[in-house]
Amino acid sequence: ELTTVRVQDPRVQNEGSWNSYVDYKIFLHTNSKAFTAKTSCVRRRYREFVWLRRQLQKNAGLVPVPELPGKSTFFVGSTDEFIEKRRQGLQQFLEKVVQNVVLLSDSRLHLFLQSQLSVPEIEACVQGQGSQTVTEAILHYAMSNCGWVQEEESRP
Q1: Vertex 58 angle, CA 54 and 62, to 5°
Q2: Domains of the chain with CATH codes
Q3: d(Cα 45, Cα 21) in Å, to the nearest integer?
Q4: DSSP, res 23
Q5: CA 3, CA 80: separation in Å to the nearest integer?
Q6: What is the separation of C-alpha 116 from the centre of its chain, rounded to a whole number of angstroms?
Q7: Where's the PX domain (predicted)?
Q8: First to last CA, the chain
């Protein structure tokens, strides 16, 4: 079984405003039976990764969850350099997470990687309070081609 996960194409949203942030494209390609969709593409921001890590930590028991890159506000160097270092760190985090059988069993991880649901929507879905099951939410997103629209938009 092979799972490739890539964190790429960082984009600054709301540039120049006080609430600007960077989101990253997460591209997943796998033949693993653990995943509902074999390919997906979503955009997530750093604070969603922080939420995911917290949830994985809560549910993993004694299994160590990989670290995220730091949230340094005193970074020395260019913004581009910081964003690239963070992108690399987020990719390493996800690569380690998808290799861990215990972490891979967490449905929050699957919704994070394979749906465009927000954090509160992921929570509702996992707790059975959403309008769809976890599998339905992932398949709905996969069938909507949203992931591929994003993939196409970023090509020159």
Answers
A1: 115
A2: 1-148 (3.30.1520.10)
A3: 7
A4: E
A5: 28
A6: 9
A7: 2-119
A8: 32
